[in-house]
Design goal:
The protein has helices at about 15-35, 255-295; strands spanning about 40, 45-50, 55, 60, 70-75, 80-85, 90, 105, 115-120, 130-135, 140-150, 160-165, 170-180, 185, 195, 200-205, 210-215, 225-230, 235-245, 315, 325, 345, 355-360, 370-375, 390-400, 400-405, 410, 420-425, 430-435, 440-445, 455-460, 470-475. It is mainly beta and about 475 residues long. It has a 7-stranded antiparallel sheet, with helices on one face. The protein has a 6-stranded mixed sheet with strand order 2-11-10-5-6-7, with no helix packed on it. A 6-stranded antiparallel sheet has the order 22-31-24-25-26-27, with no helix packed on it.
C-alpha cells in the first residue's frame, strides 16, 4: 500500500470512484481488527499464601476478550515446567509437573472476559517463587510474571537450661516448622533486644526451617528473658519466656550448687522431652495424612474379576478368574475382536461409567508388572502405547524403577517396596490413584477428564523364570487385614 490519494481519469466523477474507495477502507479496517494485539496483566504485588492452604493467582487479558479458543499456560522459570495447561477448550494434564498433579484448578467463570485465575491447593514450600501466565491466540501471544510468597508459622519456642557457661547459665531456645527463614531474638522484661551467644538456622527435608538460639544469663543481668521467633513475611511471631532463679547460679554452699545443677538437668530433660514430643506429633500428623487417602478409597471396594475373552493367548487365568500369569506357550483360543493379540494383558470384567471404585492386586516379589485402568474402546490388536491420550492410565515396575504413563513419563520412588497395590478410580473427579498397601502410602494419581467406559487393566509380565501371577485380593473391612491366600 503506497498511501497515494486515488486519481480520477478525465470525465470521471467522484460518485463513480466512491464504491471502490469505501471497499478499500473496509478491507483495511478488517485487517486491523484481525491483527488486534492484547496484553496480559497480573497483580502488581506478590500473592501471599499460608502453608497447607490455597492460593489464587489472577491473570487476565487487556483489552477484555474471550480466551475460550486460546492456549493458556501457567509455568515456572521454563516453558516446559508446566503448572497448569489449557488448550483446545479443555485442561491438559499430560505435560503437568508431577508436584502439581491434583493440586491445581483453572477458574473459568470469567473466560469470556479473558480472565483465567489459577488456584493451587495444599500450598507447599516448593510453591514459593515466580510464575508466568502465558496466553496464545492464533495470531499473537503475550505473558505476565506473578510472584507467590509462601509463609508458615512454626511451633511455639521451647526454652531449656543446658548448663553453665562463663559464670552464667546457658539457655537455649528452639522452634521448628517455619517458612521462610524466621528471625529469632532474645528480649528482656522491657522488651529490649538482648545479644545471642549463638544462633543456628537449618532447613529440613520438607523445606521448612528450624531455628536454635542461645543466651548466657548471668546473676547480674536480667534473669527473666523471652525468646521471640518472627515470620518476617507475615509479620507474626511466637514467644516463650523463662525465669532463671538464683538457685541456678554457683554459690559457696556446695549443696546449693548441686541443687541448681540438678534443677538445670531436670529442666533440660523436660525441654528435650517436649521437643521430642512435638516432633513425634508432627510425624504422626504426616503419617495420618498419608494414610487418609487409602482409608477413604477402601470404602469403595468392588469385586473385580478377569475377563477371559480379552486375555492374550499366552496368559493363564485361574478358575475363579482372580489370578493371571504368563504361560510359556500360546493357547488355541478364538481370535475375537476383544482379545489382545500383541500385548500380554487382560482386562477386568467390570465396566465403569461413573462413581468410585477400588480394588487391590497382590504383586508379591515380581520384578515386572503393569496395573491401572483403560478405556474399553482401546485397540486390542497390535502394539500398545501407554498414555492417557491413548486411553491408558497405568503404572508399572521395570528394572527396579516405578513409572506412570504420563507424557513425558513420570518416575516415582518409594521407601518400602509394595507387595500389594491398591487402585482407586474416581470417575467424576477424573482421577486414578495408586497406593502401596504394604505401608499404606500414596504412590501416584492421574488427573484428567474421563469419557466412555473404563475397565481394570492387568499385565503380569515375566522376568526370566519368574512367572508369578498377579492376584486380585479381597479388600478387608479394616486396615491391616489378611493378605491374599
Amino acid at each position: 500500500m503506497t498511501g497515494k490519494v486515488p486519481s480520477f481519469a478525465p470525465g470521471s466523477t467522484v460518485s463513480s470512484a466512491l464504491p471502490g474507495y469505501v471497499s478499500l477502507c473496509l478491507t483495511l479496517q478488517v485487517h486491523r481488527l484481525a491483527s488486534v494485539q492484547f496484553t496480559v496483566t497480573g497483580p502488581d504485588h506478590p500473592i501471599t499464601a499460608s502453608l497447607g492452604g490455597e492460593a489464587v493467582l489472577p491473570c487476565h487479558l487487556s483489552p477484555r476478550m474471550s480466551a475460550e479458543d486460546m492456549e493458556v499456560r501457567w509455568f515456572r522459570s521454563k516453558y516446559s515446567e508446566v503448572v497448569h495447561l489449557y488448550r483446545d477448550g479443555q485442561d491438559q494434564y499430560g505435560e503437568q509437573m508431577p508436584e502439581y498433579r491434583g493440586r491445581t484448578e483453572l477458574l473459568k467463570d470469567d473466560i469470556t472476559d479473558g480472565s483465567f485465575s489459577l488456584r493451587i491447593r495444599d500450598i507447599q514450600p516448593s510453591d514459593d517463587g515466580q510464575y508466568k501466565c502465558f496466553f496464545q491466540s492464533s495470531v499473537s501471544y503475550e505473558d505476565a510474571f506473578l510472584e507467590l510468597q509462601v509463609a508458615g508459622l512454626g511451633s511455639a519456642p521451647v526454652i531449656s537450661v543446658e548448663g553453665h557457661q562463663g559464670g552464667g547459665i546457658w539457655v537455649v531456645c528452639r522452634s521448628a516448622g517455619w517458612y521462610p527463614q524466621p528471625k529469632a531474638q532474645w528480649r528482656d522484661l522491657q522488651g529490649q533486644l538482648l545479644p545471642s551467644a549463638s544462633e543456628k538456622i537449618s532447613q529440613e527435608a520438607d523445606g521448612l526451617f528450624q531455628t536454635e538460639i542461645a543466651i548466657v544469663v548471668t546473676e547480674e543481668s536480667n534473669q527473666k528473658v523471652s525468646c521471640c521467633v518472627r515470620n518476617p513475611r507475615l509479620n507474626q511471631e511466637r514467644e516463650s519466656a523463662i525465669y532463671v532463679t538464683e538457685l541456678f547460679f554457683p554459690r559457696v554452699n556446695p549443696w546449693t550448687v548441686a541443687l541448681g545443677v540438678i534443677l538445670a538437668v531436670l529442666l533440660s530433660l523436660a525441654g528435650y522431652c517436649f521437643w521430642r514430643q512435638h516432633r513425634a506429633k508432627e510425624a504422626l500428623r504426616s503419617e495420618m495424612k498419608r494414610q487418609k487417602g487409602l482409608i477413604r478409597a477402601r470404602r469403595y471396594a468392588v469385586d473385580v474379576t478377569l475377563d477371559p475373552a480379552t486375555a492374550h493367548p499366552n496368559l493363564v487365568l485361574s478358575e475363579d478368574r482372580k489370578h493371571v500369569r504368563r504361560g510359556n506357550t500360546k493357547q488355541d483360543l478364538p481370535d475375537n475382536p476383544e482379545r489382545f493379540d500383541h500385548c500380554y494383558c487382560v482386562l477386568g470384567a467390570e465396566r465403569f461409567t461413573g462413581g468410585r471404585h477400588y480394588w487391590e492386586v497382590e504383586v508379591g516379589h515380581k520384578m515386572r508388572w503393569d496395573l491401572g485402568v483403560c478405556r474399553e474402546s482401546v485397540n486390542r490388536k497390535g502394539k500398545v502405547t501407554y498414555t492417557p491420550k491413548n486411553g491408558y492410565w497405568v503404572v508399572w515396575l521395570r528394572g527396579g524403577e516405578y513409572k506412570a504413563s504420563t507424557y513425558p513419563r513420570t518416575v516415582f520412588t518409594m521407601s518400602i517396596r509394595p507387595n500389594r497395590v491398591g487402585i482407586f478410580l474416581d470417575y467424576e473427579a477424573g482421577e486414578v490413584s495408586f497406593y502401596n498397601v504394604t505401608d499404606r502410602s500414596h504412590l501416584f494419581t492421574f488427573t484428567g477428564t474421563f469419557s466412555g467406559t473404563l475397565r481394570p487393566y492387568f499385565h503380569p509380565c515375566r522376568s526370566g523364570k519368574n512367572v508369578a501371577p498377579l492376584m486380585i485380593c479381597p479388600v478387608p473391612a479394616e486396615l491391616g487385614g489378611d493378605l491374599c491366600p
